[in-house]
Amino acid sequence: MDEVSPTKHFTSKPLLPTKTPRDKAISHYVNALNSPRNVVKTETPECGIQIIDGDGNFASTDTRERPSLKNYILSKPEFLKRGMDYNAVGILGAQSSGKSTLLNYLFNTKFRILNEVMGRSRTTHGVWMALSGKESNIVVFDLEGTDGSAREDDYSFERKTSLFSLSVCSVLMVNLWSHDVGRFQASNMSLLKTVFELNLQLFVKEETPKTLIVFVIRDREADTPFDQIERDIMEDIMRIWDTVIPPEEFINSPINRFFDFQFTSLPHYEHFYENFVEEVNLMKKKFDPKNKDTYFLPQYNKEIPADGLSCFCEQIWETIKDNKDLDLPSQREMLSRYRCTEISNQIYKEFNDSIKGEMKILKKGNIIEDFKKVFTKQIDAALERYKEVTERYMETIVEEIEEQLKKQLCGLVESLFERQAELMEKAIGKRVKGEFTIIRNEYALLYNKKEFNPMKYQKYSQELSRTKAVIERDWRKQFDDSVPKFLAEKTKEKFNSVCKDIGIAYEDSVSKMTEVMKQHFGDYLESTIKPKITPYLEACKKDMWKNIRNVINIQFTNGFNKLEEGFKTCSNMNKDTIEEEIKKSKTDILNSIKELVIKRKIELPYLLERKFNNMFRFDNKGLPRKWEPTDDVDTLYFAARDETEDILDMYCYFRIEESDDQYKFTINYRDGDLPSESIETLPKGADEEKVILNHEERKELIETLNGFFEKGYLIALREKENSEIKYQIPLYLIVLVVFFGFDEFIAILTNPLLFILTLIIGGGVYIGYKLNLGGVAKNYIQYLLSMSLSSTMEYLRTIPFFTPLIDKVWPKDDNNTEETQEEIK
Question: Is residue 713 part of a domain?
C-alpha cells in the first residue's frame, strides 16, 4: 500500500512561486520553533544532561560538556528532599518524529529538537534526562529515536535504551504517527515485543510496579476514528503478548499484570499549531499528580529514592548492557512462528470482519438472539480453517499459535458477550424496576388515615412474589441461549449476580411496601388517638395521664394486632423481627404523642392561670368570689397553688407508663413567702428522654406563676380588709352624726336640687359598695390627689425662690408616679 502523506487531510494556502511546498513547510516549522508564542513558561526551561551517550557510555563522571548524573542530581536539593515522592516519564518513537518537541511543550524542558533545514538527521543521541516541575517532581527521559539511518540494522542499542526506560519510568510514552499505525516496524511493535520479553526476564526475581504505556498518536487524520486506532494498537499489542514466552511463574499472567495502556492523540504541529498547543496544555494536566485523572498513579511509581537515582540508573544500564539473552529463535522456529502468526492474524481479521454485523447490532443496543449458536459455529469454522492451512509447519508452533488464536477468537466473542450480557442485564433490570414500580404505585393508593386493613396489602405481596418468579425464569432461559460453552464457567458469576439483583429488588420492594403499610398504620393510629386525648390535655385534671394511658392502651391493643397480622402475611419477617418492628412503631407513635404534648407548652401558662383562678378567685358556682372577714384566704390560696403546681408537675414529664406517676419535678413550700422551685436534677430512675419541661423552662414558668399567685393573693387580702371596715364603725359615732347633721339633713330634704344630687352620689356610693369597688375608688382618689400635688410641687420647683425648700420637703422620685399607676391598675 502506498504511504499516506502527512498533509493529505489538510488544506494549504497558495504558495509563492519561488518556494516549493517543502520549502514553505520547513520555513513555517522553523519560524514556529523560534517564535515567542511557543509556550508561556512560568520558569526557566530545564536543559537536562546526556546520561547515556550514543556509544552506550553512562555519565558516571564529570566532563567538560556536562556533569555526572550524580553531581547533576546533587545540584537539585529540592529534588533530593522529595525522597520517593516523584515520578519518571520517558518517550519512545521513531527518529525525527517530534519526541523532543513534545517533551519540551509538556514539561518545560529544552531538549534539542529537529531543524529540517539542516536535514532529518538524528537529534537525540543516547538518553537525556531533565528534572521538570516547579518542585522538580518529574524526571523526564528523552530517548534516541528508533529506526534511524545512522544505526541501520543495529537494533540492540535502541532495545536496551527502551528497556532502560521501562526499568525507571512510571509512564512510558510511545510517539507514533497516525499513518504508521498498523505497520509492524514503523509503529515500533517489534521493539515492544522485545521489551515485553526482556522485561519479564530481567525482573523475574522481584515484584516490580507496573508501567503505564501511553501511546501518543501524532498528526491525527480527521477521517480515521480515534477509537479504531486505539483498537488497532491494542490488537497489535495483544498479538505481540500472545507470542511472548514468559518465565514459568508468569505463564498465565495477562499483560495488564505488568503494563497498563492509555491512548491520546495530537493534531499536526505545523498545520494546526494552535490546536496542537491547546491540546498539549490539556495533556499537561494528565502529568500533574494532583489531578484526579493523572497518569502518575501510585501503582506505577518505581519507588527509587531520589538520592539513589543516579546509582540505580548506572547499575541498571550496566545490567542491560551485559545481558546475553537477546538471541533470536532458530530459523525454522522463526519461520513457523512467523507464518502461523501471519495465518492466525489473517483468520482473526476474517473472523472479525464476519461478525461486524453482529457488532453493529450490539452497538445499537439490540440483543442478538441465539448468541451461543451463532458464535460457536463461527469459532469452530475459523479454527478448522487454520488447521488446514498450517498443517505443514512445526506441530508445536502450530498448536501454540492455534491456542493463541483460539484465545483471541474467544476473547473477541467474550468481549461481545460482555456487551450482550450488559444489554440483557440492563433490559432485565429495566423490566424489574418497571413491573415492581407498577405494583408499588397500586398499593400506594391504599393509604387512608381513616382506615387500615392489612389484608389489602397481602394481595400486592403475592403479586410481587409472582412477578419475581416469572422474571427469574425468563432470565435463566435468555442467559442459557446466549452463553457459549467456553464461557459457561466464567459467566456463572454474572448470572448469579443478576439473580441476586432481582432478589435484592424484590426484597427492596417488599421492604418498601412493608414500610408504607407501617406508615399507613402509624398515621391511622395517630389520627385515632390524638383527638381522644386532646380533651384530657385541655382539662388539666389530676387523672389526665391515667385517662391518656387508658386511651392509648385500648388503641394499641386493637391496632397492633392488625399490624402484626400484616407483617406476617406481607413479608418474610421472622417472629423476632416482627416484634422489633412493632416495638419501633409503638415508639414512633408515642414520640408523636409526646410531640403533641410538647407543642402545648406554649399554652401551659394560660392553662395554669386559669386553673388557679377557677379554684381561688371563683367559687363553686363559677362566680367571682366575694371575700368576707370570716374567709380563710391562706388556706384557699395554698390549696389553689398546690393544685396548680400539681398540674405543672404533670406537664413536666411524659407519664406514659403508670410507674412514671411517682416522679416529682416541683417542690411546694408552706413557710413564709418562699416561692416554689423546680428540682434541678432528674428524680432517681427518671428517663431524660421523657422530660417535657427542662429545669430552665420549669424555673422560668414557676417564677412567672409566683408573680401571678402573689398578685391574686394580695388582692384577696385587700378585699377582705375592706369588707372588715364596715363592721368596725361604733354605734355612738352614728348617733352623733345624726344629731349634729340633722339641720343639714332637713336642708337637703327641703332643697330639690341638693336632694337629687344627694340621691345620685349616695346611689353611686351604694353601688360601688355592693360591687366591692371601694378600694378602686380609694386608689383612684389617691392617684388624683398625688398627681395634683406632684404637679403643684413641680411647678413651684421651677421658681428659684421655692426650689431649695421644695427639694427638702419633696425630693424627686421618678418611680413614685409609676408605682401609683401600677397600684391603680
Answer: yes
Work out the pLDDT band at 565, boundaries 50, 70, 90. low
Tell me: the pLDDT tens digits for 722-744?
666 555 556 666 677 777 777 77
Is 93 annotated in a binding site? The answer is yes
Please count the other Cβ atoms lying within 10 Å of the Cβ belonging to residue 263: 18
What the block records as the C-alpha cell of 134 is 516547579
Contacts of 42 (CB under 8 A, 6+ apart): 108, 134
- Domain match, 444 and 303 both: no
Residue with the larger pLDDT of the pair 392 and 722? 722
Q: What is the mean pLDDT of residues 28-49?
A: 54
Q: Are strands 666-667 and 49-52 parallel, antiparallel or unpaired?
A: unpaired
Structural domain including 177 reads 21-323
CA-wise closest residue to 202 among 246, 256, 239: 246
Q: Which residue, 468, 503, 523, sits at the end of a domain?
A: 523
- Grid coordinates representing 108 are 518545560
Alpha-carbon Rg for the chain, nearest whole angstrom, is: 51
Provide the CB-side half-sphere exposure for 201 (13 A, CA): 15
689 shares its domain with 790:
no
34 in Cβ contact with 17 (< 8 Å) = no
Asked whether residue 534 is domain-assigned, the answer is no
In a domain, residue 730? The reply is no
> Side chain identity at 284, as an amino acid letter?
K
pLDDT value at residue 36: 43
- Band of the pLDDT at 295, cuts 50, 70, 90? very high
Segment holding 50, helix H or strand E: strand 49-52
CA nearest 87: which of 211, 207, 199, 196?
A: 211
Mean pLDDT of the chain: 75
Q: Are residues 292 and 336 in the same domain?
A: no
**Same domain assignment for residues 402 and 449:** yes
Q: In this structure, how many other beta carbons lie within 10 angstroms of the beta carbon of residue 411?
A: 12
pLDDT tens, 302-345? 777 676 688 778 877 887 777 644 332 333 455 567 567 877 98
Q: In terms of pTM, does the model score above 0.85?
A: no
Place of cell 419477617: 573
Place of cell 481479521: 349
745-771: average pLDDT: 77
Tell me what the mean pLDDT of segment 519-524 comes to: 74
**Is 96 assigned a ligand-binding role in the annotation?**
yes
If one counts the domains in the chain, the total is: 4
97 marked as binding residue: yes
Q: Is 741 annotated as a binding residue?
A: no
Instruction: Report the pLDDT value the prediction gives residue 246, as an integer from 0 to 100.
Output: 80
Is 94 among the annotated ligand-binding positions?
yes
On whether both 695 and 641 belong to a single domain, the answer is yes
pLDDT for the residue numbered 421? 84
CA distance 99 to 270: 15
Q: What angle in degrees, to the nearest 10, is found between the helix axes of 226-243 and 395-443?
A: 130
351 and 439, same domain (yes or no): yes
Rounded to 5 degrees, what angle do the CA atoms 369, 374, 380 make?
160
- Grid cell digits, residue 130: 531533565
List the strands of the sheet with 211-218, edge to edge.
49-52, 127-132, 138-143, 87-93, 171-177, 211-218, 259-265
Measured CA distances, 242 to 181, 182, 710 (Å) = 19, 17, 101
Same domain as 73, residue 161: yes
3-state secondary structure 298-359: HHHCCCCCHHHHHHHHHHHHHHHHCCCCCCCCCHHHHHHHHHHHHHHHHHHHHHHHHCHHHH
